[in-house]
Amino acid sequence: MTKDTVISATDLSLTFQTNDGPVHALKDVSLNVEQGDFVSFIGPSGCGKTTFLRVMADLEHPTAGQITVNGVSPEDARKARAYGYVFQAAGLYPWRTIGGNIRLPLEIMGYAKSDQDARVKAVLELVELSGFEKKFPWQLSGGMQQRASIARALAFDADLLLMDEPFGALDEIVRDHLNEQLLDLWKRTQKTICFVTHSIPEAVYLSTKIVVMSPRPGRIADIIDSPLPRDRPLDIRDTPEFLEIAHRVREGLRAGHGDDA
């Protein structure tokens, strides 16, 4: 059975015009993301990882090349509510409860109150925050706030989840726990996930495919299809297979820097 292509980019480039001259954020990027993939994008700061994610979300617009999301333009995919987006910061409104924050996109989209209630309850259970609906963001830890942010992105049940370094500001112990939870959520929901990270262990642990990007202009230095099983205990990070993939990612990052002329 063939998988549907969710993201298809061909020779994608994006140049920002600034007062100091053009900034080439992406150059000739070609990539396919298939249904059910967990794809991580890793590379140095300024390599275009987040820009690429924002192009998928119709928040930035390419200056050359083509990209489709579910076979249509990013704009049409956005209007069809094809994806949920999780930002680096949780971005929860402090005057709204956790339930109120999760409910916000459902209110904007015009879901019936009873449907809103059912969806909020379901996604709180998914991210293990049942019982916290009436709490305010300041009453939750950073990790719990990010889980609430993920719940908000899941509330309208889009098949595609775009995640821009959501765990980057968290300490290593919390990050490990959320990595485990995210893998479990991905397995249960069968969603397609595109995930930006600076962490090699995080990229290798989470992904079915790792996209290694070079410094600006952002290009793809390597695409690694992970041979690791989908069920991954945290201690898989100590295995030779894991370390071998991590080594290849590191080599790709080093080679990408070498290409930066």
UniProtKB/TrEMBL annotation:
The alphabetical list of record keywords is: ATP-binding, Nucleotide-binding, Transport
Boundaries of every ABC transporter domain copy:
7-236
Keyword ATP-binding among UniProt keywords: yes
Q: Does the keyword Nucleotide-binding apply?
A: yes
Gene3D superfamilies, A to Z? P-loop containing nucleotide triphosphate hydrolases
One MF annotation (Gene Ontology) recorded for this entry: ATP binding
User: Member of which family?
Assistant: Belongs to the ABC transporter superfamily.
Q: What protein name applies here?
A: NitT/TauT family transport system ATP-binding protein
**What organism is recorded for this protein?**
Roseovarius lutimaris
